[in-house]
Amino acid sequence: MKRALIPGTFDPITEGHLDVISRATQLVDEVVVGVAASPNKKPLFASEERVALAQEATRHLKNVRVLSFNCLLVDFATQIEAQILIKGLRAITDFEYEFQMTALNYQLNKAIETLFIMSPPQYMYLSSSIVREIASLRGDVDRFVPSCVGAALKAKFAEA
Ligand code: PNS
Fold first, then answer.
1. Site to substitute for ligand 1 among 66, 72, 108, most atoms within 8 A of C-beta
2. 3-class SS at 143?
3. Is the CB of 115 inside a 6 Å radius of any atom of ligand 1?
């Protein structure tokens, strides 16, 4: 049973994340989307909200589970018996950060391999942070996020 963990803060999940997740489902038996608590990033959405949105957005993908975690990534991977970490790689700007995390995760646990899936051109410059910014300024984010996320962003900024 090959199980891959796709980790992230998912604040919120975007079409770019979904592209990576759906492509990963073709490569392994099961994909676990790991929603990191990431308290240092002061997320807009609470962990439970990010999990619920990721669950809704991946409901059509049969071999995907969404779980939250608040520990070292490699420890979470071990706990859920994932042998592979899959990350999306967008523009070259991602590389330095991903290179560092991959090297450190490998030092921490050599049994876990990290693989990268390149973003297609339409998602190269898409990020959760830019989506939050556009939504906060009442811009249209519908083409960048699944409909449940678009609705959640509208509700979040209507509160503000
Ligand atoms: O979507 P993000 O915010 O870029 O994802 C970053 C994430 C959650 C993958 C990273 O911060 C992480 O792995 N957090 C878990 C804590 C950990 O293991 N940190 C050490 C990484 S070398």
1. 72
2. coil
3. no
DSSP conformation class of 109 = -
Using CA atoms, how far residue 124 sits from 109, 118, 147, in Å, is 29, 9, 20
pLDDT at 126: 96
Task: Please check whether residue 74 is in contact with residue 111, taking contact to mean a CB–CB distance below 8 angstroms.
Answer: no
Is 160 a residue whose pLDDT tops 80? Answer: no
Tell me the sheet residues that pair with 114: 85
Q: Given this model, what pLDDT does residue 93 score?
A: 80
Query: Going by CA atoms, what residue is nearest to atom 19 of ligand 1?
Result: 72
Structure tokens at 126: 């898409």
Say whether 143 is catalytic: no
Instruction: Calculate the average pLDDT of the chain.
Output: 97
Q: Residue 8 class from Cβ within 10 Å (0-12 exposed, 13-18 middle, 19+ buried)?
A: buried
30-36 and 64-69: which strand pairing? parallel
User: Is the per-residue pLDDT at 94 higher than 90?
Assistant: no
Please report where in the chains the tokens 């779980």 appear, as a residue.
67
